[in-house]
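User: I'm writing a tutorial on reading structure tokens. Could you give me a worked example: one chain, its sequence, then its tokens, then a sentence or two explaining what the tokens reveal?
Assistant: Sure. Here is the example chain.
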Amino acid sequence: MADDVTLRPIGVVSGGRDDWHEDDWGSVEAAIVLDSEQFAPDATTGLHEFSHVEVVFLFDRVDPSRIRSEPRPARGDNRFPPVGVFAHRGPFRPNRIGVTRCRLLDVTGLHLRVQGLDALAGSPVLDVKPCHVEFETGPISQPSWTSQLMADYF
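And here are its predicted structure tokens:
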């Protein structure tokens, strides 16, 4: 395996939620404030033409000692089958990395206003990518229990 990797955040989440709870992220508005020491305002040129972005961020408030890879039910809810860490999308991930597709509401220089980002205020942002239709690889299949799990998430 490769050696450790060091990542430098490109920005931070501003606004939105300060505390974690699982559901109702769809209406949450927040901002991604990009680091002006790393980027000039023209780094976002053209981004306003996209309706959605994928945001890669760090679940920085998750205690690494709480991360487990053995199968467990999603959200600890025994209505759902135990699945391994790579069949979950929750915050207790080996590298604590989150990825969310959210609506891009506005771009003003290094300030991106988004809706539906399930990262807490102050979370380090590792990357932002525009969503392209061509990256949709066709119909997605998933176990039926995931629709029940995610019914109120967004």
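What the tokens reveal: The chain is about 5% helix and 30% strand. The longest strand covers residues 97-108.
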